[in-house]
Amino acid sequence: MSTTTSTFQTIDDLESGQQLLVRIDINAPVEDGVVQDNRRFARHAETIAELLADDHAVALLAHQGRPGRDTFISLEGHADILADHLGQEVAFVDDTVGEDALEAIGGLEAGDVLLLENARMCEEELPEEAPDEKADTEFVQTLAPEFDAYVNDAYSAAHRSHASLVGFPRVLDAYAGRVMESEYTANSAIQQREFDGLVTMVLGGTKAEDLIPVIEEVDDTVDRFCLGGIVGELFLRADGHDVGYDVEGTEFFDHQWEDHADTIEGVREEYGDRLHLASDLASETDDGERVERAVAEIEKETSYLDVGSDTADEYADLVAESEAVFVKGALGVFEDERFADGTVAVLSAIAEADCFSVVGGGDTSRAIPMYDLEEEDFSHVSVAGGAYVRALTGEGLVGVEVLEAVAESE
Ligand SMILES: Nc1ncnc2c1ncn2[C@@H]1O[C@H](COP(=O)(O)OP(=O)(O)OP(=O)(O)O)[C@@H](O)[C@H]1O
Ligand SMILES: O=C(O)[C@H](O)COP(=O)(O)O
């Protein structure tokens, strides 16, 4: 693998004993309102431990979910998971930028860690705007003076132009943490690789809006795309099948369809045989059993939770004959064993094949330990999802670009 030298300052360049604002990405699965551990916590704990060992006081900024979704919750439970990984207390304050937050930050001493409340609970965090506009927000202007420097360890969120990611590095001296550094190096190197054999991209999960632009951008380098999850159903809908519609209170499909239907149509026409869609899907019966149905016989008023076994076999065969396989997003709701077949079939085929492979996604990468697969059987398992596939296209990540701009101006 070729090496890529980072062009930002890292925590190696920090003087000891400072008051630091550290952006991490512990956006994680939520089950019944309770946050679940994923690989991101352990990875960020390593950066934090290193900072504490260097006598810094650390305030952590992070987000969880998106407003309006049931994964949009407080970070209180995240502090406990992080504390377990870190082996020390992580204080939590249910405020991000108000008086309580400022008081908690003011009380920090060397070796302390404080997690601030979900940054997306601040109105100014989310709208995607240019870094300078984000730097001008009250959010950034209020918090920044409390700190000596800013560390961004959130590579997996670096594709978002949000205040906590791009605003602070415009006003504070800024450094990359260890996760930012290692994911940047690994993902940039992957983008530069060339393959003689077949390259397959397996795309699933819930965030179709992140994947559709990627499908267009990597057009020349990927020989076939295997689609599942929400993005797969949206393509089936474009094919005229009765799936890819919101039913039973889901909010995955219709808004993404409204935004991307034209692009999906265009991609279908242009890519033809290179696009592989599910030929069967799995859902749950009233008795809680998994049942499969051929796509031709699909019913509109049903939630489909996995690809069916014919599709899983087909995708596994395509993986087996590939020289390189890139996975982003799960083919089904693998957290429920009944709907893990598609995801596990593809991951197992990769683990058994002699191919170069990358599996990305904060949620998706959890399937590897969950189904007793070995991380060593994959070339790279990224804690990043949207950011990793965007990096594959060669497009810059705004959160990385602002760090590079700081380094250039030094
Ligand atoms: N048919 C489906 N219906 C509902 N959820 C699905 C379906 N198929 C897959 N999923 C969900 O997709 C999730 C994983 O993909 P997703 O793109 O949302 O996140 P990710 O892998 O963490 O990537 P990122 O890091 O970009 O968030 C899994 O948690 C899985 O339950
Ligand atoms: O999980 C992720 O991919 C990042 O935390 C970004 O989250 P978002 O897709 O909700 O912006």
TrEMBL record:
Question: Which pathway?
Answer: Carbohydrate degradation; glycolysis; pyruvate from D-glyceraldehyde 3-phosphate: step 2/5
Task: Give Gene Ontology CC terms.
Answer: cytosol
Where is the protein found, in the record's own terms? Cytoplasm
Indicate which residues the UniProt annotation says bind ATP: E335, G361, G362, D363, T364
The protein's predominant localisation is cytoplasm
Instruction: Identify the residues that bind substrate.
Output: D25, I26, N27, R40, H63, Q64, G65, R66, R120, R160
**Which keywords does this Swiss-Prot/TrEMBL entry list?**
ATP-binding, Cytoplasm, Glycolysis, Kinase, Nucleotide-binding, Transferase
Return the EC number.
2.7.2.3
Q: Which reaction does it catalyse?
A: (2R)-3-phosphoglycerate + ATP = (2R)-3-phospho-glyceroyl phosphate + ADP
| Residues at which (2R)-3-phosphoglycerate binds | R40, R120, R160
Q: Name one GO molecular function term.
A: ATP binding
- Give any single GO term for biological process: gluconeogenesis
Which InterPro entries does this chain map to?
Phosphoglycerate_kinase, Phosphoglycerate_kinase_N, Phosphoglycerate_kinase_sf
Q: Which PANTHER family match?
A: PHOSPHOGLYCERATE KINASE, PHOSPHOGLYCERATE KINASE 1, CHLOROPLASTIC-RELATED
Of which family is this protein a member?
Answer: Belongs to the phosphoglycerate kinase family.
Q: How does it associate, per the subunit comment?
A: Monomer.
Q: What is this protein called?
A: Phosphoglycerate kinase
> Could you tell me the gene encoding this protein?
pgk
